[in-house]
Design a protein that fits this description.
Layout lengths: L8 E4 L6 E2 L2 E2 L3 H11 L3 E5 L6 H10 L9 E3 H12 L5 E4 L2 H9 L11 E4 L7 H12 L4 E3 L5 E4 L2 E4 L1 H12 L5 E2 L5 H11 L6 E5 L14 E5 L6 H6 L6 E3 L5 H4 L1
Helix pairs in contact: 3-7
Length: about 260
């Protein structure tokens, strides 16, 4: 199994792992300090494609994380990497928030041409019925169909709100199709994007997170995983789960010493 000292890149989930309700969890900033002292790179990794990169950077740096843009990877970033690598046409139907639209437009994609060649579905907190109609029509017509991530719920203060997974299920019920590719955790695309960015093989990357079916299931693509019991997953949940982590900690505060 190895130890944390064998890891050359740590990927850190956000809510429930590094912070909770916008406040760093105990020891979270200390873990970053320990990684920097040892010269081990890290990146925050999130499936949430409803917020822009600058919002995440501002939020993390306001907490004292002191990170650069290179140390943040969202499912939107990984989706853009995937589209570029696969040579997708620049005319897209993008279902997403204004911040997601701005990120794709800045990358050179045309989002309102009227003749899209592919469909990208993000976590859209500005979703309308007309967007659903356009999405289903495009999927039904057979256009390549990409989703940024698979989560059914997004954690918020006081509970959860519906995430992209519910929309994927709705589109499947209406069209009979599921996405041709889902980019975010637990799928390999986002881990491969991180590996490419930092030049580290998958086997020497560790995903740190609190959610079994996304963070820890990412281990299926060859990365190591560390479960922290500070968020969604309790020790009782983990005991019953078939998804297993390489390392288990009560919280990120225990990880600095384990380095």
């Amino acid at each position: 199994m190895g130890t944390l000292s064998d890891i050359r890149l740590f990927l850190l989930d956000l809510d429930g792992t590094f912070y909770l309700d916008g406040t760093p969890l105990p020891g979270a900033l200390d873990f970053l300090t320990a990684l920097r002292a040892k010269g081990v790179p890290f990146a925050f990794l999130t499936n949430n494609s409803s917020r822009g990169r600058e919002e995440y950077l501002d939020r993390l740096n306001a907490m004292g994380a002191q990170i650069t843009g290179r140390e943040l990877l969202t499912s939107a970033d990984a989706t853009l990497d995937y589209l570029a690598r696969e040579g997708f046409d620049r005319e897209l139907l993008l279902v997403g928030t204004p911040s997601l639209e701005a990120q794709f437009a800045a990358a050179g994609y045309q989002l309102h041409s009227g003749r899209p060649k592919a469909v990208v579905l993000g976590f859209d907190t500005t979703l309308t019925y007309q967007k659903l109609v356009d999405l289903c029509n495009a999927v039904r017509a057979g256009l390549p169909y990409i989703a940024t991530h698979p989560d059914f719920n997004c954690p918020v203060k006081g509970g959860f709100i519906p995430d992209i997974g519910g929309v994927i299920a709705l589109v499947e019920a209406c069209t009979g199709r599921r996405p041709d590719a889902v980019i975010g955790k637990p799928n390999a695309f986002i881990a491969e994007a991180a590996a490419d960015r930092f030049g580290v093989p998958l086997a020497q990357i560790c995903m740190v997170g609190d959610r079994l079916y996304t963070d820890i299931a990412l281990g299926g693509c060859g990365v190591k995983t560390a479960l922290v019991l500070s968020g969604e997953t309790s020790s009782a949940d983990y005991e019953k789960s078939e998804i297993r982590a390489d390392f288990v900690f009560d919280g990120i505060w225990q990880m600095a010493a384990a380095l």
